[in-house]
Amino acid sequence: MFSDVKMVGDSLRERLKGVKRLLVIGVGNELGCDDAAGVELSRQLKRGLRKSGRVSVVEAGAAPENFTSVVNKLHPSHIVIVDAARMGLQPGSVRIVEKAEITGFSYSTHTLPLSFLIGLLEKSSGAAISVIGIEPLNVGFGEKISTPVINSIASLVRALQQIIHSMD
Question: Distance between CA atoms of 168 and 95, rounded to whole angstroms?
């Protein structure tokens, strides 16, 4: 849908209207270079957030299905999942990925397909779910996230912080 962080932020702000409790889930493999984008975003977002009973951030790693009980305890009205996604865009591009599109993108590092996780979370939590994909440059073995992806993570963290702070 969008490959510009500002446009993604604007769309996300619209999707989060009426949010009562927000959960941001960072997904990815820390040993897969850019595949760690969601995990790194969740870490940066946690560091920059004020303590709030309305917002939680979870580093779900490569097995996000292991966190469904945590999600159910938090009772979010809205969930934002952030993950690296091969979308055929320039590395570092960011966009909201619609649920129907998810099976068409590569999320191969996860234990279960992300589409399965979304279905599970929808049924168990009833939350409105948005997925943000970040186009990776390199998902080979390693811990270094590429510059375009790091830059997009930083921009996306700022956009999410603005949205979250406007909720207070």
Answer: 25
Tokens linked to 109? 């590092």
The C-alpha atoms of residue 158 and residue 155 are separated, in whole angstroms, by 5
CATH of the domain at 136: 3.40.50.1450
Amino acid 168: pLDDT: 60
> Where in the sequence is the domain holding 16, given as residue range(s)?
5-167
What CA dihedral angle connects 106, 109, 110 and 111, to 10 degrees?
120
Q: Cβ neighbours of residue 69 under 8 Å, at least 6 residues apart?
A: none
Give the Cα separation of 127 and 110 in Å (integer).
22
Burial 84-116 (b: 16+ CB within 10 A, else e): bbebeeebbbbbbbeeebbeebebebbeeebbe
Average pLDDT (88-109) is 75
Q: Where are the alpha helices (DSSP H) in the chain?
A: 5-15, 37-48, 68-74, 114-125, 147-167
> What would the mean pLDDT of 94-119 be, rounded to a whole number?
70
C-beta of residue 99 within 8 angstroms of C-beta of residue 48: no
Question: Quick one: DSSP state of residue 18?
Answer: T
Number of structural domains in the chain: 1
